[in-house]
Design a protein that fits this description.
Helices cover 23% and strands 43% of the residues. With 147 residues, it is of the alpha+beta class. It folds into two domains: 33 residues; 109 residues, Sandwich (Immunoglobulin-like). The strands form two sheets. It has a six-stranded antiparallel β-sheet, with no helix packed on it. Strands 1-11-10-6-7 form a five-stranded mixed β-sheet, with no helix packed on it.
Length: 147
């Protein structure tokens, strides 16, 4: 064996370990980046009748309203939740929801029930839920089916 082969045999394991460590740091950095995911409606959405489920893969969010308190229930623990009621002129009322009992349940007093009181009334809503640097966003319409 010449000296170049001996040197290569000695340096190769060091380069392999250094590459493994560097790739681990790179993957960790990529995972920490903010990501945006879109939630879609499963079926027709009626928040007042507790029939509004949004999904993105295995992540499900249920939106309901009971006596003027809008509630969010998620399959994974959330860091923050913001609900926006969109008016006809595209302006919005923003509600920062508060954690109820656990990070899976969030609620806030909103004007949603007053804005769609009768069967056939509908309202556009926007939801932003954050989980460990990832944002789940949705724009959906809640239509009151029956009262």
């Amino acid at each position: 064996m010449n000296r170049h082969t001996k040197l290569a045999i000695l340096i190769a394991p060091v380069l392999f370990i250094a590459g493994f460590i560097a790739s681990d740091y790179y993957m960790e950095h990529q995972a920490a980046q903010d990501k945006v995911f879109y939630l879609t409606q499963q079926n027709n959405c009626d928040v007042l009748a507790d029939k509004c489920v949004l999904e993105s893969g295995e992540f499900l969010v249920s939106v309901s309203d009971h006596k003027g308190v809008t509630r969010i229930n998620a399959t994974f623990p959330l860091d923050t939740v913001v609900l926006m009621l969109v008016n006809d002129d595209n302006s919005q009322q923003i509600y920062q929801l508060a954690m109820a009992d656990t990070p899976y349940y969030w609620q806030a007093k909103t004007d949603l029930r007053e804005s769609i009181p009768q069967a056939g009334d509908s309202r556009k809503l926007r939801l932003v839920a954050k989980i460990k640097g990832g944002s789940y966003i949705s724009e959906f319409v809640s239509t009151t089916l029956s009262r």
